[in-house]
Specification:
This protein has about 350 residues and is mainly beta. The chain has a single domain, classed as Porin (Beta Barrel). It has a 16-stranded antiparallel barrel. The longest helix has 12 residues. The protein is globular.
């Protein structure tokens, strides 16, 4: 009954719904909370998000599967298999190939009180050691469409891209590899989204000092446009401190979606010296046909704003296909450019992603 109700709502509203990747949220015009249990995005999908992926994202719609195991417990997963080959290996003079498990995650959601209290677990099974990427208690139904959560979770900063290799993820320190332990509150009244978190600042490891990390994001989300900013401060012992702040935006025109983010990172060490870095990202997505998305990305990183010619650029383009409700297949070409004195080999990759 629950699944049929959600399907009816999605089909009645057409394509105006959010989905896993930020470009889909830009294209459809809703907050990340429309499709994810984690209200600031990423990880396990809600019942709404799972049914959306099966009925609107795929080229063909089959039997819709309900992620609910019973009236309060629901299950989901993401499994990604990757194959890659270097176009030219500058060190060895020949291409190198690899087959890898990119991700294996299982999501469990226990709704203790409907729309009020839930327990959520995002368990990583591979490729590394098994462990909880996210595990938190979620209280919803607060004023201004608000919520609060406590436990281990992904911090609310910037665009939550799936690709952790992009500089706005890897260099800012906000990726799927760096959840933290703490508390978070958020409010989404109308077109506004506001999240703020207080955490240990240890990327999920045990606390080792008296400092704490503050992370926040504020955004305006409209039907075909969004604009926002994020800020973070991680206080360590003594003078050690890491600050990050930046802005992001996105818009959609017909089948074209464009989004981007710029961040400045400042690190101050015990001696008082400061390192300033800049990371940027621009992405364009074109809906060529139902279930077929063409993607082009440009990433930029300046590892020290006070040093000339130390920039790095990452170019990526390819095609994503969603043939059926639970499968995404993608092919990408990545050119990873460094400063003139060094360069990484270009890479061709194939990806198969099972999701629910």
């Amino acid at each position: 009954m629950l699944t049929s109700t959600i399907v009816a709502a999605i089909l009645a509203a057409g394509s105006a719904h959010a989905a896993p990747e930020p470009y889909l949220a830009v294209r459809t015009g809703l907050q990340c909370s429309a499709c994810h249990v984690n209200r600031s995005g990423g990880g396990g999908r809600s019942a709404y998000g799972s049914v959306y992926a099966q009925t609107q994202l795929a080229m063909r719609t089959g039997t819709v599967r309900n992620r609910a195991l019973n009236d309060f417990l629901a299950l989901g997963w993401d499994v990604r298999a990757l194959g890659s080959a270097t176009v030219e290996d500058y060190a060895q003079g020949s291409p190198r190939t690899a087959i890898e498990l990119g991700e294996a995650n299982v999501y469990l959601e226990a709704r203790m009180i409907e729309r009020k209290l839930a327990l959520y677990l995002d368990q990583t099974l591979g490729p590394g050691p098994s462990g909880a990427r996210e595990a938190f208690a979620l209280i919803e139904g607060l004023p201004l469409n608000g919520y609060a959560k406590a436990g281990k979770f992904l911090l609310p900063y910037g665009l939550r891209l799936q690709d952790d290799a992009e500089f706005i993820r890897s260099q800012t320190g906000f990726s799927y590899q760096t959840p933290d332990q703490g508390i978070e509150v958020g409010f989404e009244p109308g077109v506004l989204s506001f999240f703020i978190a207080l955490s240990n600042g240890t990327a999920g490891a045990a606390e080792d000092n008296n400092g704490k990390q503050f992370t926040s994001t504020l955004a305006i989300v409209k039907r075909r446009f969004r604009l926002g900013g994020s800020a973070s401060r991680n206080e360590g012992n003594g003078l050690a401190r890491r600050d990050g702040f930046g802005g992001f935006a996105g818009f959609a025109v017909g089948p074209l979606s464009v989004l981007g983010e710029v961040d400045q990172i400042a690190e101050r060490v015990q001696s008082g010296a400061e390192l300033r870095q800049l990371a940027g990202y621009v992405e364009g997505d074109f809906l060529a046909a139902r279930g077929v998305n063409a993607k082009v990305t440009y990433g930029y990183f300046d590892k020290n704003l006070d040093v000339a010619e130390d920039q790095r650029v990452r170019l990526r383009f390819g095609l994503e296909v969603f043939p059926v409700g639970f499968l995404r297949a993608a092919a990408f070409y990545t050119a990873d450019l460094w400063i003139p004195q060094a360069r990484a080999p270009d890479l061709v990759s194939l990806e198969f992603h099972l999701h629910f």
